[in-house]
Amino acid sequence: MKTTDTMGTPTRTLACEIDNIMVNGFTMDLPLVTKEKEKEEEKGGSKSFSSSPTVPSDMQYEILCRVALDDLLRQCKWVCKYWNALTYNSTFKRFHSENTQSISGYFIQSMKKNRYHTSFISINPPSPSSISLDFMPTTDIKIEASSYQAQGLVCCVSKPHSTIPGYYVCKPVTRQWRQIPNPKTRYITEKMAIVVKKSQPLHYKIIRLSNSKTGCSLHCEIFDSKKWAWRMYFDNVKLPYYIILSLEPEVLVHGSFHWLTFGKHKQIFACDIDKENWSLISLPQSSTSSSSEEEIEAMNYDFQIHRTLVNCEGHLGLLYSSRSWMELWVMEDYMKKTWRKKYRVSLEPLNQMYVGGYSLLALDTMDMILVKKFDQLIWYNFVRGIPTKVMKLQNLDHDTHHPLNSDNVSCDLK
C-alpha cells in the first residue's frame, strides 16, 4: 500500500516488494521490509506479514549498494523514507560508486584568456581525472546545464560569444556527444536546464531562458529529443523590476526547475517542465520554529548571509550560511508553499581551520557541504565537524560549478 508523508515523499508503511531490480547483472525480486515496518513489529504491531520471507535492513543496504544507478534513482528511492535518505548519504554514495562504477561530482568551469577551462572533481571513486570534455569537437566549450538523472547528460555550447554558436548534448563518462539544432540565438541566454524524462528509450528535454533586447522580460524555448526541435515554451515573461536569476545551478524538484533570484525582490523562480508554466515562490517568512519573523527577514536580505537553493532529500530547500553557522529550511508542503526550519549547525570548526573566510558552493549530501577557500575545494562533514577531502584548484578564477550523476552505460543521444 502506497502512502505519502507530511513532506510529500512517497513511502510505504507495509512490506514492500520491488520488481526487477538489477544487481550486478542479475534480476532480483525480493519482498523487503522497511524501517517503519521493523519498528511496527518491534512494538507488537500487525503480524499479518510474519509468514512472508523478509530481508533485514542491513542486507537491504548491501543490495541497494549494488543496484544500477538508474534503478536506484527512478524506482528504489521512492519505496520508503529510509531508502530515499540513503541516496543522499555520503557513506552510501561512496559504497555505491565503488560497487557500480557510477560517478557523482561536479564540473568546475573557469575562463582564462577568453577561453573556458573545465575540470571534474569528486569525493568518490573512480579517479576524477578520467572525466573530461576533451572528446568534444571543439576545446572552447561552455557547460550550460547538467542533468541530475543517472544518464549524466551535459548541455554545452561551443564558441558561446560568437554570432552563431554550436549546441551539443554529451555524456562525459562514456565520451559520447551529439550536436543539436540551434535555438533562436538572437536573444542572450540567461539560463539553461536539462532533464531526462525516460531512460529506455532515452528521452530528454532542454529549456532555455533568454533575455529580450530590453532586458525586462524572459523568453523560454524547449528542446524535445523526440521531436528533435526547439519550440516556444512561454514568451515575454514579465518579472518584477530588478529581479535577476542567480548564477548558481538550478534545483530540480516536484517536476520544476528552480532558481534563486537576487535584486530588490528576493524570490524563487520556478519553471514547470510538464505544465509549461512558471511562478515566483516566496522565501521563508514565518514558521512554527523558534526563529522570529524579524530574524527570517534579516536572513533574506542581509548581504553578509549567503543563500543557496538545495535539494533536501527530494524537497526544495534553502540554505542560509554565514562564516559561523549554517541553517537549512525545507518546503514541507510544496502545494501550500509552507517552509520549516530543519536545523542550524555551527561552522566554527571550519572557520577556525580555514581562517580568512570561504564560500559555500553546494550541499553535497545531507551530512556534507562543498566549500571553496581561495585555491582549495573542501568537502566538509558538518555532522562530524571535519574536512573529508581537500583538492587544489588548477584555475583560481572559478566561474561556475555543475553537479553530475552518471552511470557508465552508453546511450543513444538521438
TrEMBL record:
Residues 112-371 form the F-box associated beta-propeller type domain. InterPro entries: At3g26010-like, F-box-assoc_dom_typ3, F-box-assoc_interact_dom, F-box-like_dom_sf. It comes from the Eukaryota. Residues 36-45 have a biased composition (Basic and acidic residues). SUPFAM superfamilies: F-box domain (SSF81383). Residues 36-55 are annotated as: Disordered. This is F-box associated beta-propeller type 3 domain-containing protein.
